UniProtKB/TrEMBL annotation:
Domain Creatinase N-terminal per the UniProt entry, residue ranges: 21-156
Protein name stated in the entry: Creatinase N-terminal domain-containing protein
Transmembrane region(s): none
Species whose genome carries this gene: Pigmentiphaga humi
InterPro entries the record matches: Creatin/AminoP/Spt16_N (IPR029149), Creatinase_N (IPR000587)
Length: 356
């Protein structure tokens, strides 16, 4: 374990910030009549628990239990031998060993005097693993287990200045990794090696990439297994985590002359970013070309980034000050085109694009 990548820097994320987040959740619990809130966490769904406690389980799963007037309790399926590390990198109350998460939750609730059948909110209820959800509902009562996603989403955005600073650091790592790819890169293996070397050296905890290897053939971004040749133009998307804060950035890259239509698409993208930063998620003009589409993603639950809006539908309301990622795809005369960038949404007053 590389301690520098996993430890908690209090200078960047003060414990008082985490305390304030938990206090806001506890106030929301009181308003909604919830005796407790549970938030599940795994490598794939780390966002809610990290936001409340600074903990990310890199190789296992856990459940965070928030009760009124108490510091959060982490029920971890990890063995007790790593509890010291958990306490070092997190801001928590108790750490409880719970190889069976549902049983551990039930026992802890009983030990804290929470009456069976009282309302319990779960962040990420719709994606809670069946091995956890079914025993919990059968024992506690399915009607008493309610979805706490709307409550959490209302607290998670807008984004605080400390989280914005860490997201900006993650963006800088991603931008430098993409810029450092050699111009003569031949295939996806060489591309991945260049990206990994740059991002890991800069302190990224994770860097996930998707590639459209040949934009003259198609624009679908894929996580590729194996080695694929790159065409004259390709697209690269990077999702980077720095101290638990994820950012997504991507773009189209031409190894030869820029395809027709790219310049107009880039102008449209920059204008759209400006509109979003000033007015929020209002309707945007269609991108130039055919089959154009755009998405707006944000952290509003257990996943680091989830769809909040597309060119066709709104899934979640993002208030002014929300940190989001704007992405766009289009089929142009010279081939496909793709671009994505993070920004802070405005709403009558100007937001901002992150600097990186």
């Amino acid at each position: 374990m590389r301690r520098g990548l996993m430890s908690w820097s209090r200078e960047e994320l003060p414990a008082s910030v985490l305390d304030e987040r938990v206090a806001r959740l506890q106030a929301g619990m009181k308003q909604e009549g919830l005796a407790a809130v549970l938030a599940y966490t795994s490598f794939a769904e780390p966002a809610a628990v990290h936001w409340l406690s600074n903990f990310t389980p890199y190789w296992s799963e856990a459940m965070l239990l928030v009760l009124p007037g108490e510091a959060p309790i982490l029920l971890a399926s990890l063995t007790p031998r790593v509890h010291g590390w958990i306490r070092e990198v997190s801001h928590l109350g108790e750490v409880v060993s719970a190889p069976r998460l549902a049983q551990g939750v039930l026992e802890t609730l009983a030990g804290k005097g929470v009456q069976r059948g009282s309302r319990i909110g779960v962040v990420g209820l719709d994606s809670l693993p069946a091995a956890v959800a079914l025993p919990l509902m059968e024992t506690w009562g399915a009607a008493a287990i309610v979805d706490a996603a709307p409550l959490f989403a209302s607290l998670r955005q807008p984004c605080g200045k400390e989280a914005l600073a860490l997201a900006d650091r993650a963006l800088g790592i991603g931008l430098r990794a993409a810029a450092g790819v050699p111009a003569d890169v031949r295939n996806t293996s060489e591309l991945a090696a260049a990206v990994e070397a740059s991002a890991r050296a800069a302190g990224a905890e994770e860097v996930l990439y998707r590639v459209a290897p040949d934009l003259s053939r198609g624009g679908a971004l894929r996580r590729l297994e194996g080695e694929f040749p790159l065409g004259p133009a390709y697209a690269l998307e990077l999702s980077v985590a720095y101290k638990g804060h994820w950012i997504r950035v991507g773009g189209s890259h031409a190894r030869e002359a820029r395809p027709a239509g790219w310049d107009a698409a880039q102008v449209w993208f920059a204008d759209s970013l400006s509109r979003l930063a000033e007015h929020g998620a209002d309707e945007l003009a269609a991108a130039p070309g055919r089959e154009s589409r755009w998405t707006l993603e944000s952290c509003i639950g257990v996943q680091p980034l989830a769809l909040a809006r597309t060119h066709e539908q709104e899934f979640a309301r993002l208030p002014p000050g929300s940190l989001a990622v704007f992405s766009a795809h289009a089929a142009l005369d010279g081939g496909h085109w793709y671009q994505s960038a993070p920004l802070v949404l405005g709403g009558g007053q100007r937001g901002q694009a992150l600097r990186g």
